[in-house]
Amino acid sequence: MMKTKIFIFFTSIFLIFSSNKLVPSESAGMIKYRQNVMKAAAGHMGAIVSILKNNLPIRDHILEHANSLNQISKMTISIFPKGTGLGRTKAKNSIWKNWSKFEKISQDFVDESTKLMELAKNGDIQAIAKQIRKTGKTCGSCHRNFRKRD
Ligand code: HEC
Predict the structure, then answer these.
(1) Among 35, 43, 69, 126, fewest CB within 10 Å belongs to which?
(2) Which CATH number fits domain 22-146: 2.60.120.10, 3.10.20.340, 1.20.120.10, 2.30.30.30?
(3) Burial of 120 (0-12, 13-18, 19+ CB in 10 A)
């Protein structure tokens, strides 16, 4: 009897660590990390908007911010692993129930920020401004569906 209990105990410990779900402490770390990554995305978007709005003489920075935004867009899917829907997070559980929809919106973010990067290389300000709005729509679309309101 005792042996069976010990066996079950160690088996469950093993299953917890070997499954692809994160244990709570890792989960909190991942949540904090993704919130920082999201803030970075907002920072790069805001930086581009500031340059455009105020016609700042650092237009070459637009491309750098667009590059960073594009890098972040490619990370988006991997900062939402299963098991990170609980705790200090605004991520809705529907992310993991509608994973393919979530993946699709992440891909839209990648596609639109890739276009933004291409346009930033050419420096057509009107086109960049338009594409910033399109990229912003992918943020909004994901938040509307998958982020809890305050
Ligand atoms: C595929 C979905 C998705 C996309 C695309 C996305 N976000 Fe998010 N974002 C989320 C989710 C979900 C949260 C909540 C994360 C949490 O609290 O764990 C979030 C949180 C945030 C936060 C709050 C971070 C914090 O401090 O808690 C900011 C700011 C943000 N996103 C900005 C952006 C911007 C700007 C873009 C586009 C350039 C963007 N996001 C694109 C899903 C997305």
Answers:
(1) 126
(2) 1.20.120.10
(3) buried
